[in-house]
Design brief:
- The termini are far apart.
- The chain is of the alpha+beta class.
- A seven-stranded mixed sheet has the order 1-2-3-7-6-5-4, with helices on both faces.
- About 40% of the residues are buried.
- About 25% of the residues lie in helices and about 35% in strands.
- The longest helix is centred in the C-terminal third of the chain and has 22 residues, at about 170-190.
- It binds biotin.
- Biotin binds near residues 21, 47, 50 and 140.
- Biotin (BTN) binds near residues 69 and 111.
């Protein structure tokens, strides 16, 4: 494999406290002060209003989580590849976390799980900046939370500390995670979605598990999770034996 001779990331800004690192990047872009460019990374010790998908809260305490976001240019990307950016970021993050001795799996569309508990969530948002399409990609990893802190999260969650009994200063993990992201987002940039889907499938959580697809009008369709399609869409084997593709609807795991 040819190694690329550039790095996607160029500057890292460390903040003590912010509402949300995704919001911070978007605000700085809107202000036009030039402090944020493609390749900028912003990490915070503490987020007061961390967000997840569908405007859910992302809970993290001071120095117990790694919370950061970065800005990427999408102007040279094929439109069909863009939906898979979250999968590429998931692969990069999971591969990096696995170098720490963890066994991370990817749960469609944007979570990293260890066994049946969530360790990390990813929130990708696209925006137009001076008519250029860009992505703000935010990653939250539970690092030092103990079981008591994790119990305040409304779904089963774990942390690196619970899994390994080792506490890490969260910012010290950032170079490792950025290395994984640089590698796999680089693959996505240069080779498109296919190698990302292949790698994602090798790390997939819950293959063959029963799931329900819930669309925006609330209608529910039961089935089994059988994989991810060429643009990152979930494939659901329905009870009549067909395969349905799910793009934006939520998935409820049984
Ligand atoms: C999810 O699980 O739905 C996604 C969670 C994403 C959380 C990260 S933390 C850094 C960045 N800033 C935010 O407000 N959200 C993302």
């Amino acid at each position: 494999m040819r190694l690329k001779d550039y790095c996607l990331f160029n500057t890292i800004t460390y903040l003590d406290q912010v509402d949300s690192t995704n919001n911070y990047i978007k605000r700085q872009l809107q202000s036009g002060d030039g402090s944020i460019k493609a390749g900028s990374v912003v990490a915070a010790r503490w987020q007061t209003l961390g967000r997840g998908r569908k405007d859910r809260k992302w809970i993290s305490g001071k120095d117990t989580s790694l919370t950061f976001s970065f800005l990427l240019d999408l102007k040279h990307k094929d439109t069909n590849d863009i939906a898979a950016i979250t999968l590429a970021a998931g692969v990069g993050t999971a591969m990096a976390l696995n170098t720490l001795g963890l066994d991370c799996r990817l749960k469609w569309p944007n979570d990293i799980f260890i066994q049946d508990k969530k360790l990390c969530g990813i929130l990708s948002e696209t925006i137009y900046n001076n008519q250029n399409l860009q992505a703000v990609c935010g990653i939250g990893i539970n690092v030092n939370m103990d079981n008591r802190a994790l119990s305040s999260i409304d779904a089963a969650a774990t942390s690196i500390y619970v899994e390994t009994a080792v506490k890490n200063p969260p910012f010290e993990l950032l170079p490792t995670i950025l290395t994984g992201l640089d590698q796999w987002l680089g693959v996505w940039y240069e080779q498109g979605t296919k190698p990302i889907i292949d790698k994602w499938m090798s790390l997939a959580y819950g293959l063959g598990k029963p799931v329900q697809s819930v669309n925006s009008s609330g209608s529910i369709e039961p089935g089994f999770f059988v994989g991810v399609g060429t643009q990152g869409q979930l494939k659901l084997r329905t009870v009549d034996g067909g395969v349905k593709e799910v793009w934006a609807g939520d998935i409820v795991w049984q």
